[in-house]
Request: fold
Amino acid sequence: MEQEFYRGLAQRVRALAETADPFTRRRLLDLAKRYDAKGELLRSGAAERPLPVPRITPPAVSTGPGEA
Reply:
């Protein structure tokens, strides 16, 4: 499903590139290539980058007087 999404994005970007100036066209075509590559990774079964592990701060340790 995501593969189709990226393929659609690449097609839309290429359509925009047809009417763009040369500098913008080159950048849009590079973007379309990146969308194609991302879709290929999904098709090949490569896993997406996992979410980062949440940071857990350790509990505050106090060695001051008055604690039991």
About this structure: The helical segments are 2-18, 22-43.
